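Homework help thread (please don't just give me the answer)

Our assignment gives two proteins as sequence + structure token strings and asks us to describe the second one. The first is just a warm-up. Here they are:
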Amino acid sequence: MDGNGFFIEQKKLLSRRFLVLGVFLCLVLCPHASSLNDEGRALMAIKGSFSNVVNILSDWGDVHNEDFCSWRGVWCDNLTMSVASLNLSNLNLGGEISPAIGDLRNLQSLDLQGNKLSGQIPDEIGNCGSLFHLDLSDNLLYGDIPYSISKLKELEYLNLKNNQLIGPIPSTLTQIPNLKTIDLARNQLSGEIPRLIYWNEVLQYL
């Protein structure tokens, strides 16, 4: 093989190696990009379930990257760039809480208090396994307290006061090991407070 032939073969080999490297990087990075896209779509679905959003969530646009981390009320983890906190409190928002909230799997804090949100608390909120702060107080939410809240094992703060919630207090709330604060006042709940809640050594406010 002459010099030119050897050079061509080496160039082909190098090109194949770059192709393999590109495929590998895509396999590693594409799921992360996909998750960012999923969270962006989830946020847009959440916005779509609200009313009175004009001039309030005007910077929430349909993007396909981590730009949503700069949207009003959205805070992202600096390392994973996934949504860690959503604070839309006291914005006079109407409408409902979208089931898409459950697609924010890394959400740690959700604060929607002081709005005019109605409808039921979606069961999908139980998919937010990292949630430790949940404040839906001072809204117009109705229906039962979903049992799925009991799946939030990291939850420390739960405030659902001053809504129109009905039914019994789920006894499964006692299965949340780190729950320190729970406020269910000024609702239309029935039945007794589960006795095991009183035995919770972590609970500081009821």
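The one we have to describe:
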Amino acid sequence: MDPIIEPEARKRAMAELDVLVAHRFNVSIDELEKIYDSAFPVQRKYDQKDGIDYAGLLRSAMARI
């Protein structure tokens, strides 16, 4: 398997994994966003600086489940 090198593809893959685990443990998308915001405030700032909408990626991944 090839490693995911592109930052955007890596973020999408991370969001999909986060959503799969949340789904397994019956965590809603709103709860997952709150967890992400409270547990990773520094990462959220980096994402905003880089123009990445992680909440949007989470919602997009959740829609595919």
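TA reply:
I won't write it for you, but here's a hint about the kind of observation we're looking for: Helices lie at 7-24, 29-39, 41-49, 54-63.
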